[in-house]
Amino acid sequence: MTSHRQPRDRGDGAEGIRNERAAKLPANLSRSWLLVNASKPELFEDALRSEADSVIFDLEAAVADDLKEDARYNVMRALSSGMSAWVRINAMTSPHWKDDVSALVTAAGLRGVMLAETEKPDQVTLTAMQLRAGTPVIALVESALGIENATAIASAPGTFRLAFGVNDFRKDTGVTEDPMALAYARGKLVVASRVGKLPGPIDGPPGPTDEWEDVLEACEITQRMGMTGKLCLNPDQADDINKGLSPSVEELGWAREMIERHAHSLSSKKGVNIADGSYLPRLARAQKIANLAETYGLWRN
Questions:
Q1: Domain of 173?
Q2: Is the full-model pTM beyond 0.90?
Q3: pLDDT mean for each 10 residues of the chain (301 residues)
Q4: Across-strand partners of 89?
């Protein structure tokens, strides 16, 4: 896809190199979240031109301690010169957290931050208070304590969305990568997001070298669990994640038919069969699918 210089959606007039489709997509509906090593600024532009719905410059796991300062400089330079992205910052328990938030408060192109190793609700709120007013914070939950506190974290002032740090959670708990072993944690994030009135949570990434079949299989697990986004480490996987977390062809066909039948019933003055208790919920689901299809550009004439 050809890239364009696209105005940022924060309304401050800054412009950034960005895939035009992705730049228009609200972050609450972002499916693919591409993490980019902030110590490698040569990767920034290609990441922003990729099919990833959202791009995250990573100051945390991808960056060694002795490169943190340089990586932060790279991010600030990019976000102050026309680029626009999210930033994963270091955990609040890290000595690097304060430097991260102190720098980012002046970053013109900052869309929001992802807070690593979130375990308590006040960590999100205090992070949000250090940033420019209204800056959204994604709480990356990576431990057993974080999972158990997920509902409080989701309800904390400043929390925009929850994300699941699968690999660190597995290290903390000793569980395998089997979907059954991770089902409780994923389910807890989904329920917590619903209670906190947040968008669906963001799942962990597929393996960076996984082929498209494996990526789509991973997305099927993500979707079945009720999660609506997925991290990724490889820009070539972003489009597969977008497809895997979008309504299927069958769902789109069903939604279109349901909405057309409903419109025909209203226009013919026959009325709708509200005596059927499943009708209105099915119609609401069809309209939700239609809205997503419109937003993602999936409708076909």
A1: 4-244
A2: no
A3: 32 59 92 98 97 98 96 97 96 97 97 98 98 97 98 98 98 97 98 97 96 96 96 97 88 81 74 69 81 71 42
A4: 115
